[in-house]
Amino acid sequence: MVHTLPQLPYEYNALEPFIDEQTMRIHHTKHHQAYVDKLNSALQNFPDLQKKSVEELLTNFKSLPKDVQTAVQNHGGGHLNHSFFWQLLKKDAGQPVGEIADVLNKKFKGFERFKEKFSAEALARFGSGWAWLVLDDGKLKITSTKNQDSPLIKGQTPLLGIDVWEHAYYLKYQNRRAEYVAAFFNVINWGKVNELFVKAKAQMPVAEVSEPVPQQVSEVQPSA
Ligand code: MN3
Questions:
Q1: 6 assigned to some structural domain
Q2: Cα 88 to middle of ligand 1, angstroms
Q3: Is the peptide bond between 17 and the residue preceding it cis, with omega within 30 degrees of 0?
Q4: pLDDT at 221 over 90
Q5: CA 205 to ligand 1 centroid distance, Å
Q6: How many whole angstroms from 109 Cα to the centroid of ligand 1?
Q7: If you measure from the C-alpha of residue 65 to the centroid of ligand 1, how many angstroms do you get, rounded to a whole number?
Q8: Tens of pLDDT along 110-164?
Q9: In angstroms, what is the span from residue 76 Cα to ligand 1's centroid?
Q10: Span from the CA of 8 to the centroid of ligand 1 (angstroms)
Q11: Is 144 among the domain residues?
Q12: pLDDT at 76 (0 to 100)
């Protein structure tokens, strides 16, 4: 497949004043587009790999030919991370909703504590990278990655992520990453985060995020 730049589900100015229009426009049409183009070019000599989605490429990263691994890690990761990031942002976003709200409260002893820990992770990531909320072996975890490394490479399922490359905030916030991270909390699409959580939870044996269920036979019962 030829990888393409996904459209944003909102206007470039939708996230003002928290993330400015110019940053969104350049981030999407220049930075994200460059990851897409470089991924396509890296896969030119690998017809088998061209059939795979970027999720498949990253999930099976270790089985890829050595000479394409770095390109997939950087540009495949860049393409996937940004595609993910755009969906997680929303105009007029509110507080966490649904199951993820309960689980964050329980796990981090309140949403404010979660916010502190997630922000601290985003500030501690030295240089370029991302901070994440992931499901790792059924457990919620706050973590970060360098450059464009995707949590998928480590077998983790991302639920929320913040791009802390300077290109994501420099025009408006310059060196003030902490202000950008604080602003990010005004534009998180918690409905989407919850949807990802519910989907990921259904696909894995969950140790921590739900009470143990003796036998999950009820899952296969028809609903009507
Ligand atoms: Mn970026």
A1: no
A2: 13
A3: yes
A4: no
A5: 32
A6: 31
A7: 26
A8: 999 999 999 999 999 999 999 999 999 999 999 999 999 999 999 999 999 999 9
A9: 13
A10: 14
A11: yes
A12: 98
Q: What is the pTM of this model?
A: 0.90
Contact in structure between 40 and 72 (CB atoms under 8 Å):
no
Distance 213 CA to ligand 1 centre (A): 40
pLDDT in tens, 171-196: 999 999 999 999 999 999 999 999 99
Residue 2 lies in a domain: no
CATH number at residue 58: 1.10.287.990
- Residue 217 within a domain: no
Residue 94 confidence (pLDDT): 86
pLDDT for 214 beyond 60: no
Amino acid symbol at 10: Y
Dist. CA 117 → ligand 1 center (Å): 22
Contacts with 97 (C-beta within 8 Å, 6 or more apart), sequence order: 190, 191, 194
The domain of 26 spans: 21-87
Alpha carbons 47 and 120: distance in angstroms, whole number? 42
* Alpha helices per DSSP H over 125-209: 170-173, 177-184, 190-203
CA of 224 to the centre of ligand 1 (A): 45
